[in-house]
Specification:
heterodimer; A: alpha/beta; Rossmann fold; 2 domains; 6-stranded mixed beta sheet; globular; B: mainly alpha; 12 helices
């Protein structure tokens, strides 16, 4: 059973007061996320990521389509006991303390009074807010609010966690902690679906990603698969400070750093380069295919979408 | 009562208290004690009448202002600040949220009214030096005031479920004013002719009849209150509140939270 199945979910808003015009925020989206995955939902600002999450949370109603979460209709309110959600740039009841906030959300999620207190202490510790649990949220910084947001999303031990831009507003240390937390969730066999426009986070964390741009799904797959389109070139690194003439003759781009040399050559030249290093008695350190980075893949997808749209116009 | 409604209601109550809504009691206490001392010095034999009239009118007006200004923000504030997102992404039905908010605000107003009622009785004791059995009528007047609050809370919630806070405030306050003159409107409808009569009658029966809840003057003069009026007003308030709340729920159930 998939954790999340999105079946043609689509959203069109009506904009304008006098002259009402339809504005499509999300084209029919089909997507499946397996249990235990960390799934990255990538796209630039305004791509439709938040709309998708709001649709899944039942905060906005779709124009058409449906979804299933853990095999049940996404509109079934009871399935929400199994879901955790962190909205983008969360804001909470600022008259409550962090402890009171979690107690309130625990009550609403149906966590029994017996387990609630223990669970609150646990998640506060986990997100690093245990020391300020008695402080009202109005005194919290943006980063602390983000942590409180993550705490409320995982408080009731949900099986699927939706995080909308979870790294937003966090300093590098905070981002690292959130990444660690997401990895811990994966180890606990939770499914994490998170939206981001920070590609390095997605590349470091995700089993699979989907790229959405202008409300349309542009690509989906494992990060390794998306970035495995080898460009027909290899990256060769050896120990030394000199570039042998035979490698120079291959027309390679070479960079000397300390006592290592890096060269990028074509796949066809790789045997000749290894032979040259062997002849010169230089120590080969690594030989790796040059892969497209997620960023290059992402930019390429957007460029292609823009050129298609431009062509159609 | 559904437990989630209770949690939402108690959180709403806590918000009102921590947002210093009950600070209005200080203004009320100052107003009432000042008035009691003042009328005690200038009036002969009508001090009690003045204190009851002034005290209950203040209880009513303070409560109406709180009901409208908190009621209109109950939903819109949660949408603007996006606190609603983390509530509705839990096993909370939208109708539970609206009903919970309603009970939370109603609870705040009941507590507020209770505190102000103590103030009225203290002022009464100050000017007349004793509490008479007839003063128990004040409790009925207070009960009617609370019933009014329930209707206003529900109306404020209804308006805020589809319009901006400013418009909701205008609508709610206008209905309160028109509803306070509902009997006059009915009288006017009886005298009018043609389309005007039809429109005035429709308006007179559609707006909440707050004038039927206002027995302050009658209580101040120690006139008895008919049991039938108590029953009628109770049923009317419950029906009107339920209708307004149902409208709010119906609209909110289909609203996209942008």
């Amino acid at each position: 059973m998939a954790a999340i199945e999105i079946l043609g979910l689509e959203k069109t808003y009506v904009a304008g007061f006098w002259r009402k015009r339809p504005k499509r925020a999300l084209h029919p989206l089909n997507l499946t996320v397996e249990q235990g995955e960390i799934f990255g939902f990538l796209g630039p600002n305004g791509a439709g990521k938040t709309t998708t999450l709001k649709l899944l949370m039942g905060l906005v109603f779709p124009t058409s389509g449906s979804a299933r979460i853990l095999g049940r209709e996404w509109t079934d309110p009871d399935i929400k006991a199994q879901i955790g959600f962190l909205p983008e740039q969360p804001y909470f009841y600022d008259f409550l303390t962090a402890h009171e906030l979690l107690n309130y959300y625990g009550q609403l999620s149906g966590v029994s009074a017996k387990h609630r207190e223990q669970r609150i202490e646990e998640v506060l510790q986990r997100v690093g807010l245990a020391d300020v649990k008695g402080v009202q949220l109005r005194k919290f910084s943006k980063g602390m609010l983000q942590r409180a947001g993550i705490a409320q999303a995982i408080l009731h031990d949900p099986k699927v966690v939706f995080l909308d831009e979870p790294m937003s507003g966090l300093d590098p240390m905070g981002r690292r902690e959130v990444r660690d937390l997401m990895e811990q969730l994966k180890h606990e066999r939770k499914t994490v679906f998170f939206s981001t426009h920070i590609l390095s986070d997605a590349e470091a964390l995700c089993d699979r990603v989907a790229i959405v741009y202008k409300g349309e799904l542009r690509g989906v797959g494992a990060v390794a698969d998306l970035t495995s389109s080898v460009q027909g070139r290899v990256d060769i690194v050896w120990q030394g400070t000199q570039v042998p003439a035979s490698i120079k003759a291959l027309g390679a781009e070479c960079h000397v750093t300390g006592d290592t040399v890096r060269a990028v050559i074509t796949e066809a030249q790789q045997d000749a380069a290894i032979e040259a290093l062997r002849r010169e008695r230089l120590r080969l350190i690594s030989l790796t295919p040059v892969r497209t980075s997620l960023e290059e893949y992402f930019v390429e997808k957007m460029r292609r979408a823009d050129s298609t749209a431009g062509g159609a116009a | 009562m559904n437990a989630r409604i209770g949690y939402i209601a108690s959180n709403t109550f806590r918000e009102a208290v921590r947002d210093r809504v009950l600070y209005n009691l200080i203004a009320f206490a100052l107003l009432l004690s000042g008035a009691a001392i003042f009328v005690g010095q200038i009036s002969i034999e009508i001090e009690k009448l003045v204190v009851i009239n002034l005290g209950l009118t203040a209880v009513s007006l303070f409560g109406v202002v709180i009901a409208i200004f908190i009621g209109i923000g109950l939903v819109s504030k949660e949408i603007d600040k996006r606190t609603l997102y983390t509530v509705l992404s839990r096993p909370v039905r939208r109708w539970e949220f609206i009903v919970g908010k309603f009970f939370g605000l109603s609870g705040t107003l009941v507590v507020n009214t209770f505190c102000m009622a103590i103030g009225v009785f203290v002022a009464l004791l100050y000017v007349s030096h004793k509490i008479m059995p007839a003063d128990a009528l004040i409790f009925i007047a207070l009960y009617f005031i609370v019933l009014q609050f329930l209707i206003i809370c529900a109306l404020a919630l209804l308006f805020s479920s589809f319009s901006s806070p400013l418009l909701s405030a205008v609508f709610s306050f206008s209905l309160f004013v028109i509803g306070s003159f509902a009997e006059d409107l009915r009288g006017f409808a009886g005298m009018a002719h043609g389309m005007t009569r039809w429109l005035a009658t429709a308006a007179a029966y559609l707006v909440p009849n707050f004038s039927a809840f206002n027995i302050i003057s009658s209580v101040a003069h120690e006139h008895p209150v008919a049991g039938q009026l108590v029953l009628h007003n109770t049923l009317y308030a419950l029906f009107y509140t339920a209708a307004a709340l149902s409208g709010a729920v119906l609209i909110f159930e289909h609203r996209n939270l942008k």
